[in-house]
Amino acid sequence: MATGKEIKKWYFAFLAIWTLIADIPFLFMAFTSLKTQMELLMGNTWQIPKKPTIGNYLTVFEGSFFNYLKNSVIAVSVSVVLILLVSSMAAFVFARMKFGLNNVLYSLIIAGMAIPIHVTLIPIYILTNKMKIYDSILALIGPYVALSLPMSIFILTEFMREIPIELEEAAKIDGCSMFRLYSNIILPLSRPALITVGIYNGTYLWNEFIFALVLTSTPEKRTLPLGIWDFQTKYGSDIPAIMAFLTLSLLPMLIAYILGQDKIIKGMMAGAVKG
Amino acid sequence: MGKERSAKLWHNMGILLFLAPALILIGVYIIWPIIMSFNLSRFDWDGISPQKIYVGFKNWIDLMHDTIFWHALGNNIKFIILSLVIEMPIAILLAVLLDRGGKKFDIFKSLFYLPMLMSSVAIGVLFKYIYDPQFGLLSGILNFLHLDFLAQDWLGDPKIAFYSVVAVICWQYIPFYMIFFIAALSNIPQELYEAAKIDGATQGQYFWKIELPLLSPSIKTACILSLIGSLKYFDLIYVMTEGGPSNATELMATYMYKSAFASFKMGYGSTIASAMFIIITTAGIVAYFATRQKEA
Predict the structure, then answer these.
(1) A residues 171-230 near B, CB within 8 Å?
(2) What pTM value is reported for the model?
(3) Which of A43, A49, A173, A260 could disulfide-link A34, Cβ–Cβ 3.0 to 4.6 Å?
């Protein structure tokens, strides 16, 4: 049997190896983005750039990068605000109101979590064309909000159920209306759950690909993941420029992660833990 | 009486008003599309012409005889098995090691999370170039280690392409399941370890007698998540190979997408989507009840 010290050595060896596996691709990406095409073709791929250049980043900035970024910010932030509003209203009813169809409706919506969203892709594409909103950010917001609702309503309802009934009763005696109860009492108390739901949907939608691929077509209207897709189609052979684009596209998430590590991780996991 | 009635009416109106946005959105973007998908599966339609040709169950019969679809479904199943076999053990091992290290290992945690921050498209494009036979990182490293003979056309060879892509997907998802298990481990009461320590337990015994049994509900959940995820997977495969070379990496979702939006067969695409719906929903229900019964 190995002694404690020897085991610790193995721990570290394994963790070190996994660090390499997990992170070397990122170093390759960052290093390559600072190389010229010439240096990449001539030298070893894993080498640190000898004369780092920001030329590739300038190439990316000359393209539509900021437009893709802007579209992503708009599509995701509008969607998240709407998701929070619509799902918290529904969750408030499911968690705090008594009415005949409460359980039936709630169960039906929760069942929506298990639905493979791909089955909705073709009909939503047709619908988007019929509504004459194809190739617009608006085309994305509808499905983004709707497809996020089952999970969001579930998380919020379960959270709101835990809020003590006494608070509500006190407010009712004071003559508080349903709307005031929602906006002044339940909503502020649900802050932690709202943040989790917001981060979960925000990170998921920030990276969403297939709906953006199907519902938009021009760079003017596309989001960042599609920007990567378009850029690599256009600059297929210019690997350093593509790596610069990838590095830039990672930055917003990296910054968000550094600012709120624990919350981001908790948010990303929310869907899974509940699933 | 009248006052009470009107109060009740207001109450019900309020409920309706609060639920309406959610119900309308779910109706328009989830329920109607599912019905529509099954409906469209009985038509031949290119998605453009105003005329849809009713063909009854022809698309479904074609699907039954479509070797590409069965091959894609087979790939989905292979993909389920590979992800379970590769992702779960590594994720559990990493989670256990990080959990035992405590706060000291926080830096490793952060380093391991990185793949989770990247979008699937970005990961797909990055690894396309890592796999590049001429100036990719992988051949560079193999060259450097004098292992040139191992170098392959990772994505171009139909025999290897599927495994090359699955390796990347595992790389992407291991951190996700790792955190999932770290969260579960943090719920194990410290007293259990202390009791085991008094009994003179070894590191291995901690793992087999305490950690693994207490993780098992989480492992089941993770396996269901992975199963469903593998059945509807699309992003990385489409970005890295578009299902090629010669359908080697085809999955149901990529085949559905290509049928509908590249070959303009909306009816047939809808048939594939509807079949996916049936398969995934059934698998989900079966997996759910199978794991629930065992727990009881």
Answers:
(1) 178-179, 182, 206-207, 209-210, 214, 224-226, 228-229
(2) 0.92
(3) A49
